[in-house]
Each structure stands twice: as structure tokens, then as C-alpha cells.
Amino acid sequence: MKRLRYVLCALTAFLLTAGPAFAQNEADKPAKPKRPAKKRSLLRGEYAIMASVLELTDAQKAELEKLLAESSAKQAEQAKENKAELAAAQEKLKAARKAKDRDAAKAATTKVRELRAAGVAIKAEYQAKIRALMTPEQQDKWAQFGLYRSVARRLSKAKLTDAQKDQVRKMAGDTAKALGKDLTDPGKEAKKAVTAATKKLQAEITEKVLTPEQREAMTKPRTPKKPKPEKAPPAKES
């Protein structure tokens, strides 16, 4: 019994003396350097699709990332400068609508559009620069892809097979080639031509590519999305 007590006392003494020394040794160790955060690529979403579809070179990808970073920085700076003025204009518009004051609402709407126009202009400027970094062949290919995707989205209820997608892709390509410069021209007449050609293309696809079952599916209304459940009110403190 005495031997057990002696062992316990010795162990306690060792822990009391060794503990601070161990803690000191740990404190003396240099802190591990933090790893720098990995830079997230700006080539995601639409621009990741662009890089893949057009098979951009490494140099083009680097230039595209540079342009996206510049565009984002400029838009953020412009939004910061106009934030207070835009908020005030939006409040005036809200008040004018509530008061059913048409003149005041019109003036406030014009002001809101003017303040937002700068951001739209920056975006348009950089979209033009992004287009300029493409080769003429890549520009055509991207325009053709845009037309194909637009039509494919409208046919989403038909649930096209891979073979049908290939057919639609070819037909969209032929239409894009026929449209030529109109496909990328921002003018009103060019837009009308693109709209008419797109409607004609969709009608041809419906007739020549879709099955009777798919045509029927296209006429059915979309299934409405289920409403999100309402959040329960916070419990009252007793």
C-alpha cells in the first residue's frame, strides 16, 4: 500500500514539473506558415463553356481572365460610386408609384436608367473586347453555338436524344451561316432577321426532327414549381 502511494506521488510530481516544460517547448516551436488561398479562376459558368467550345489557347484564356477581372473591378467601382444616388432614385420611384404620380415616376425611372447605364456600358465595352480576342472562326462558332443553345432551350420539354441534338446543332449551324453578319449585328433590322430565322428553324426542327410524342410534349404547359415552405416564426421567449 505504501509502495502504491509512493508511485502515485512520484507520478503526480512528474506531471507537475513536466507539464509547464512541455507547454514551453510547444510555445517555442515556430508557427506553421499559412498556405496562401488558392486563386479562383474567373473562367467559370458561361466563360468556362466559351473556353471549352472554342478551344481557346492558353494565351487567349489568360487574356480572357484579365479582361474579366478588369470588367468586374470597374463595375464594382462604378456601382459603389452610384450606390447612394441609385438607392435614392429607387426610393423616389417607389414613393411616386405609391402616390400614383406618373410624372414623378417617369422622372425617377429615367434617373434609375441613367445611373444603371454606366454599368451596362462597361459590360458592353468588355464584351466587345472579349469578342475581339477570338479569331474570326471562333467568333462564327460562338455565334452558331449561341443560336443552337437558344433553340435547344425552347425545345427542353421535348427531351431531345443525343442524335437529335446533333441534328439540331447542324441545322442551327446552317441557319447561322445563312444569317452571316446579321447574327452578331446589334442593329434592329439584324435582330428582326435573327428572330424570324430562329422561328423558322424551330418550326423545321419540330416538323423534321421531333417525334409525334415530343411534339405533344411541347404543347403541354410546364409543371409549376412547388412553392418553398414558409419559415416558422421564431419562438417567443418565455
Helix-strand layout with pairing:
Elements: H1 2-28, H2 46-53, H3 58-98, H4 102-132, H5 136-154, H6 162-179, H7 188-208, H8 212-219
Helix pairs in contact: 3-4, 5-6, 6-7
Rounded to the nearest angstrom, the distance between the terminal CA atoms is: 57 Å
> Number of domains in the coordinates?
2
Number of helices in the DSSP assignment: 8
CA gyration radius, whole angstroms: 32 Å
Largest sheet: none
User: Percent of residues in helical segments?
Assistant: over 70%
Strand percent estimate: under 5%
Judging from the principal axes of the Cα atoms, what is the shape?
extended
Query: Which structural class fits the helix and strand makeup?
Result: mainly alpha
**Strand tally:** 0
Q: What do these coordinates show?
A:
The protein is mostly helical and 238 residues long. Helix content is 73%, strand content 0%. Helix 5 (136-154) packs across helix 6 (162-179) and helix 6 packs antiparallel against helix 7. The protein has helices spanning 2-28, 46-53, 58-98, 102-132, 136-154, 162-179, 188-208, 212-219.
